[in-house]
Amino acid sequence: MIRAAMHNSEVPVLKTSRLSKRFGKRLALAEVDLEIRPGRVYGFLGPNGAGKTTAISLILGLLSPTGGHVELFGLDTRNHLSECLRRTGAVLEGVSFYPHLSGRDNLRVCAAISGGGCESRIGEVLELVGLTARARDKERGYSLGMRQRLAVAAALLHDPELLVLDEPTNGLDPAGMRDFRELVRRLAGAGKTVFISSHLLNEVEQMCDDVGIIKEGHVIAEGPVAEMVHQADVMEMTVTNADAALEVLSQIDWVGLVTRDGSDRLSVEAPRARAAELSRALAENQVYLSELRPRETTLEDFFLEVTSPEDKR
Ligand SMILES: Nc1ncnc2c1ncn2[C@@H]1O[C@H](COP(=O)(O)OP(=O)(O)OP(=O)(O)O)[C@@H](O)[C@H]1O
Ligand SMILES: [Mg+2]
Fold first, then answer.
1. Which residue, judged by its Cα, is nearest atom 24 of ligand 1?
2. Average per-residue pLDDT in the chain?
3. Whose CA is nearest to atom 6 of ligand 1?
4. What's the CATH number where 284 sits?
5. How many separate domains does the chain show?
6. Are residues 64 and 211 in the same domain?
7. Could you tell me if 112 and 104 are in contact, meaning their C-beta atoms sit under 8 angstroms apart?
8. Which of 14, 45, 201, 307 could hold 36 in an S-S bridge, CB 3.0 to 4.6 Å?
9. Residues 158, 17: one domain?
10. Which residue intervals of the chain are DSSP H helices?
11. What is the DSSP letter of 265?
12. What is the pLDDT of residue 312?
């Protein structure tokens, strides 16, 4: 698997070690290792059925693993689940509120259910999710985006350090997604660590610092979004002498992996901005290019490439 370096030595807020879950014959999660650093927004990306909700249910202790374990804030959830959950807020799929109550009254109900003590935070969390102006309106008049933000407000009532969101932008329109993205960035700015599952690549690319990509229960890539996109910065070239080109390219320290796709075709990992330098270096060694094309991929291309079924690759 691809794992880009994480440049931080702090204790991870969330760490899974060889986390596995089997449902009968189906292995929904296979030895998953994830690490989420404090203050980061982490996107857990995967297509339908990849195992995202299963992983989240295991992290929150709603399911028990077949193998492996979860640590939150450096504590093993097998022995410290209640403390871990006190420091964690979650929004799972299909949250519902009382439609005949206002947003504010729904939060009062949530505060009462969680044992009281956080009523004083209701105003603050409404402000944080941008619902202050609509707090007196009945929930049944809320848009889907407003309902999602109300769910986040409820999850924030007990002032958790970690927020876990399962597909929070599902069904939102572009404006709703933008509002949600801004909310997530605001939470990160307020020092929260956020774990978001999604199958929406553009969203993750814009909203998250780090990403873990899951396919059929296996985490196949993990690292900072910027490095994932960078990893896909590849140039394809056709050269007059591939052997000589390989020799020249191996001497250039900013050139990454070089693969030979045919007798005279090479794929070269290198920044697009250095294409001219690349062709000059080759020409100085009597290697000439008949074609040079950047294959600059977005995280979405990268995701589609790594998650497409084997037979289509
Ligand atoms: N309670 C269960 N019993 C049996 N199989 C299950 C159960 N929950 C999940 N699965 C299976 O485990 C696999 C992973 O499901 P999961 O819901 O975790 O995927 P997901 O990534 O959340 O998908 P989606 O994007 O559709 O929400 C699927 O094959 C699913 O059918
Ligand atoms: Mg799911």
1. 48
2. 89
3. 23
4. 3.30.70.100
5. 2
6. yes
7. no
8. 14
9. yes
10. 52-59, 77-86, 103-113, 122-128, 144-156, 174-189, 201-207, 225-231, 242-250, 275-283, 299-307
11. E
12. 43
Q: How far apart are CA 107 and CA 119, in angstroms?
A: 8
Does residue 183 share a domain with residue 95?
yes
Q: Give ligand 1 pocket residues (Cβ under 6 A).
A: 23, 26, 28, 46, 48-54, 199
Percent of the chain topping pLDDT 70: 90
- The Cα 91–Cα 303 span in angstroms is 25
CATH of the domain at 31: 3.40.50.300
Q: Is the pLDDT of residue 7 over 50?
A: no
| Domain extent for 287 | 233-296
pLDDT band at 118 (very low <50, low <70, confident <90, very high): confident
Confidence of residue 197 (pLDDT cuts 50, 70, 90): very high
pLDDT at 298 > cutoff 80: no
* Cα(215) to centroid(ligand 1), Å: 12
Alpha carbons 27 and 298: distance in angstroms, whole number: 30
Does residue 92 form part of some domain? yes
Mutate to test the pocket of ligand 1, among 27, 44, 53 (most ligand atoms within 8 A of CB): 53
Angle between helices 144-156 and 103-113 (to 10 degrees): 30
